[in-house]
């Protein structure tokens, strides 16, 4: 019997094609990293919509796959040495899929190191800081009268965007050739429009970043993966 059939998550999100990779996700900046990656590398997969509601992400079924109750997560029935493997955390999934297929992670150890460092830049800096910017600028945190949290994240967002803009000077992609670093970074840059924060962080003054976002969204795999699984 396929591994996925016996996994607790299958009780809530049953697999129709259990012999292909199973994706449990929602189209947030972190979620679409994996669907875009899967479209880029052409690996067959089945997507399951896991909403951000507690009834989904804090359900016993989802916690059996990701104890941190965050999307995305995957089950690969055809993992290393033919054994199934489960992976959570979007950056870890990108690395796993890149190494599994030998794609979008560089051709040399030096290229891989450069790509991984920019992936970590997104995981440890750009994503968390822009997420806090969204909270304090657009969502519930915007109601806090103390301006210091909002100013902190606006200023940090500006600093990080300047780093990206400088890195893109003279090149199309963040680490040389298109890679998992771009798949990690570009969706978070695009989130600035959703947060209605483009003007406050001066995005339009950063020509390299603006062109980079446009280039990223012109890719067919991005256009398809950006809404997988589709929002309800």
From TrEMBL:
Pfam families: GST_C (PF00043), GST_N (PF02798). Residues 18-105 form the GST N-terminal domain. Signal peptide: none annotated. CDD domains: GST_C_Ure2p_like, GST_N_Ure2p_like. Residues 108-232 form the GST C-terminal domain. PANTHER family: DISULFIDE-BOND OXIDOREDUCTASE YFCG, GLUTATHIONE S-TRANSFERASE-RELATED. Belongs to the GST superfamily. This is GST-like protein. It comes from Shimia gijangensis.
């Amino acid at each position: 019997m396929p591994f996925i059939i016996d996994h607790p998550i299958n009780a809530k999100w049953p697999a129709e094609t259990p012999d292909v990779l199973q994706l449990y996700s929602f189209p947030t900046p972190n979620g679409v990293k994996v669907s875009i990656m899967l479209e880029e590398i052409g690996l067959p997969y089945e997507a399951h919509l896991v909403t951000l509601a507690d009834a989904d992400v804090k359900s016993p079924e989802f916690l059996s796959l990701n104890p941190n109750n965050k999307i995305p997560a995957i089950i690969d029935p055809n993992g290393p040495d033919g054994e199934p493997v489960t992976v959570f955390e979007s950056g870890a999934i990108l690395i796993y899929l890149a190494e599994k297929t030998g794609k979008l992670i560089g051709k040399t150890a030096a290229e891989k190191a450069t790509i991984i460092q920019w992936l970590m830049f997104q995981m440890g800096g750009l994503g968390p800081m822009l997420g806090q910017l969204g909270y304090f600028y657009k969502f519930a945190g915007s109601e806090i009268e103390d301006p210091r949290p909002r100013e902190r994240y606006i200023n940090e967002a500006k600093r990080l965007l300047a780093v990206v803009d400088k890195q893109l000077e003279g090149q199309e992609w963040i680490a040389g050739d298109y890679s998992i670093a771009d798949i990690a970074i570009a969706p978070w840059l695009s989130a600035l429009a959703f947060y209605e924060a483009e003007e406050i962080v001066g995005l339009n003054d950063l020509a390299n970043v603006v062109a980079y976002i446009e280039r990223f969204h012109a890719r067919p795999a991005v256009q398809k993966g950006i809404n997988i699984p589709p929002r309800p």
